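Regression check, glutamic acid case 307:
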Amino acid sequence: MSAGRYAPSPSGDLHLGNLRTALLAWLFARSSGRGFLMRIEDLDRGRDAGAADRQLEDLAELGIDWDGPAVLQTERGDDHDAAIAELAERGLVYECSCTRRDILAAPTAPHAPPGAYPGTCRDRNEAERAAARERILPRLPALRLRVPEGAEQLAFEDRLMGRVTGVVDDLVLRRGDGAVAYNLAVVVDDASMGVDQVVRGDDLASSTPRQIVLQRLLGLPAPPAVEYAHVPLVLGPSGARLAKRDGAVTLRELQAHGIGVERVRSRLAESLGLAAPGESVCIEQILARFDPGLLPREPWVWTPDPT
Ligand code: GLU
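Current build output:
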């Protein structure tokens, strides 16, 4: 099956930025005849069923529908483990005992961006690894990908951003606390769910080159068989990324201020050039009007309705 998806992390209610990204993911998928799938990215917090349920309720209220039950990432651990084991068998995984502070303090390679892994633990022999493991107890080493030579930089074509080039450092596959890392899980899950269209916030565009390297190493579908569209974030009235401090920004908060779901849906559509100011539109109208080529490429600045 050919499918798009929305993959929220269950860390609280979705704000307007998240809702707008979800609406776009749904529009891209449905307008291209794809299925639309939902995945709860709950690796960080274990099962946070409460937040996830509220998120799904809000999405459904907006008119977004999805095929089949939402997939919980924490239930997909066997596939994640198998992918890491496969990479390890091929010598592509190494233990890393660095803390965040170690990484920031280490000298960086000349063109590496700040925060890129400097390779401190990459070439350790068994004795050095054992000593490092001992030194950091009770913490366990993280597992990192040994990025093959030549793959340290990668470009892809984004439907909205055009050509995006990014650095691929030795990314973490499994964290020191045993949790599977986002980049590995997202690649394995998208492939297993049949996702061939990824629409998400443009704050994740810089992770995509890393994910494409993983797709290729694991023999999973990669661009051009998978398409990416990274959508601009929503900014608050101050011009900074929309956040809770900007007042009523979730569907429920807005409803509590007398701004109903139709109004929120219509304002989101207006921000995408799919409704006239003040016009009330249903989800079918938004879908019928959707044209990816005409989407605004600029961030949308949310200003509350005057009350
Ligand atoms: N879980 C991520 C988020 O909520 C999205 C990951 C993705 O779409 O690849 O920001």
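Comparison notes: The CA atoms of residues 196 and 226 lie 4 Å apart. Residues 7-9, 41, 186, 200, 204 surround glutamic acid (CB under 6 Å). No diff flagged against the previous build.
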